Amino acid sequence: MKLLFRQRFFSWFDSYDIYDEQGRVVFTVEGQLAWGHCLHVLDGIGTHVGTVRERVLTLLPKFELYLGETYVGCIEKEFSLFHPRFDIDCKGWQIDGDFMEWDYAITDSGGREVARISKELFHLTDTYVIDVADTQDMLCVLMVVLAIDAEKCSRN
Question: Mean pLDDT score of the chain, rounded to an integer?
């Protein structure tokens, strides 16, 4: 399943709309005023389904992932010179990105591709295409993409 992740043009805090292949809003993401990034994920009818919360005062950026109110893991940027790498303690996933930080692949411990994320160029706001292999992983993949985007925003 493909998702289109598009940041809203006018918003005080991080806010995004995530669309399916038919152009319907599947998720809405609302930023909250907090130390570090705090992003709440709402489903298509407005029910809170997940949270991405940045831990502050860490050497490298670290984000906690919650499904509902349940902690499911975290993602932390690793020190690397030539291409971005992130360590995930959720579901045994691994992330590798390209040098320009526009394309990522998420794989499981067996090497199976869970998702592929590609940034679309020539848009006024951040826009990503997320291709998820299994729809059951859709929300967790979205939260990983949100954490990566928040890390990039903090750095820039």
Answer: 84
CATH code assigned at 130? 2.40.160.200
Tell me how far apart the alpha carbons of residues 41 and 56 are, in angstroms, rounded to a whole number. 20
Its domain, for residue 23, covers 2-155
Question: What's the rounded Cα separation, in Å, for the pair 12 and 56?
Answer: 21
Q: Determine the average pLDDT of the residues in 40-44.
A: 95
Question: Residue 128 — very low, low, confident or very high, per pLDDT cuts 50/70/90?
Answer: confident
- Backbone φ, ψ for residue 148 (5° rounding): -65, -45
pLDDT digits (tens, 9 = 90+) for 59-87: 778 899 999 999 999 998 877 777 667 77
Number of structural domains found in the chain: 1
Give the tokens for residue 6.
């598009």
3-class SS string, the chain: CEEEEEECCCCCCCEEEEECCCCCEEEEEEECCCCCCEEEEEECCCCEEEEEEEECCCCCCEEEEEECCEEEEEEEECCCCCCCEEEECCCCCEEEECCCCCEEEEECCCCCEEEEEEECCCCCCCEEEEEECCHHHHHHHHHHHHHHHHHHHHHC
